[in-house]
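User: Hi! Is it possible to get a structure for several chains at once, not just one? Here's what I have:
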Amino acid sequence: MAAEPIVVIRELTKSYLQGDLNVTALNGVSLDILPGEFVVLMGPSGSGKSTLLHIIAGIDRPTSGSAMIQGINIANLNESQLADWRNQNVGFVFQSFNLIPVLTAAENVELPLLLTDLSSAERRKQVATALDLVGLADRGHHRPDQMSGGQQQRVAIARALVTDPALIVADEPTGNLDAKSAGDVLAILQSLSRDAGKTVIMVTHDPKSAAYGSRSLHLEKGEITA
Amino acid sequence: MTLTSFVVKNALRNRRRAALTIISVAISCGLLVTLLTLQRELTIPPESEAASLRIIARNKVSLAQPLPAKQLSTIEKIPGVVAVSPFTFFGGNFREETVTSFAQFAVDPVRFRNLIIEGRIAEGSYDDFINDRTSCFVGADTMKRYGLKIGDRMRFTGTFYPVDLDLKIIAVYQGTVDDRGVFFHHKLLDELMGNPGTVGTWYLRVASAEASNEVIARVNEAFANTSAEVRAETERAFQMGFISMLGNVKLLIGSVSSVVVFTLLLVTVSTMSMAVRERFRELAVLKALGFRRRELFSFILAESFGLALLGGSIGIFGAWALWTGIDLQKLTNGFLLYFEVTPRIMATGGVVAVFLGIVSAISPSIAVARLSVVQGLKTLD
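Assistant: Yes, the chains can be modeled jointly so their relative placement is included. Here is the combined structure:
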């Protein structure tokens, strides 16, 4: 029996005002993503790929249409419910790592767990596991400015993983990395999808990065073209 | 890591700015406490329970106009008057001083004894004061300040009266609200002035505080339509009259204090706004990770509150320690007598610090509430 899609997008549109101009970022996008898929969103700048990613991740709202994630239409959730939903279901990996500079790697990874009911010992255990998964078990006490770009991005992946979310969204995660570090990061994301069953959705411009995914979608002018 | 340690790390991420903010709040709160203490010192005269039982009657035209000494017999007979003595301000300069900060009064020693309710004789004997017309009865603070002892002489150069005084210290008092005054025989002043038959004011004691209004009315009435009409008032009202001569001190100090608080507010609001603005993208990331508005508000409020309260505490307790440790009476030549930083003034400073902490968090909190995660992340990319 085929698995139920984790992401079900139907007739999704997103438009916004840019000055006096009404810009349509997404124009009737429909899409299903299965659990454990590593979906790569590609397309030129302004094609709507990041907007689609943001809506799926619950940090932006559609103008119309529905975005059902794990059976929940997240467009219907209020601000507070959406925040809780993100904390429990989505892991974020950003292009610029976005680690808090005054916190150590372990503390950065621990941040999403501060919103849970876990004890301090339980949190430390989960942080250690997440850092171990990305190969940084021995760097937990280092601050971001004491680490390379690749290491910082791996800390960001550990932070995305630590709450054990079903969905991991990555917005150009290798955009600021050298080829070697980019390869390491992509390999981790691929492993998360293939071995841990996480659904990974990644935006990238780079066809080499896209090759790590299990499926690529091409967007142009707010529509999926391939 | 806990949420508290996260807030502390954020607050101290720019240590120089945090330190400068704390210092500016500390200095401003210290200044505010100092101004409020000065206001209290200048506008609230020393008050004692006994002061409510005493009345001062002066010439209705002006304090500078003397009253006829013959009024004494009339005042004595007024119902409710327990004791009365002439009470004439001499206003001389001690030794070589150009401004002497303690007052000298000519009194009738026998009658004046019944007017003294509070305090005690610390050295010497009041009876000796009564018996020696060239002696004086001196407050312990003045004795200590000038290193005087019983038997020393005090010489005063007259400024209001064209005569000088040469008095022998015979007794010392202490335990009143103002242990600085010097009292001497009115008869001595009368002799030196050629017995003019006048006094500066009358000092009265009434049986009870409730009776004072009635006695005041009777005294005023007794001399109505005479060549020397009097204006009687309680000792406290009389002191307040002196203070009003300084102008509206309360308004002046209040205005300066308001400017201090307002400036302080601008400093802390600006600091918190800067601190939050440079962290917009981090706050957007926290939102993305699941932190809600109320949690972000709490972070900002705790940070702002912590900085303001720390600075405020340093300033308030610093001012308290400073003004408690310094002998201001000596330093200001007796102008400032107590300069007491009261718990109420410290609490006012604390309330101002808390107010600053809360108000300075409002504007950044509104900005964060409006912040969309996507817009916040774009500030990064």
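Chain B touches chain A through 26 residues (CB under 8 Å). The radius of gyration of chain B is 30 Å.

User: Great, thank you!
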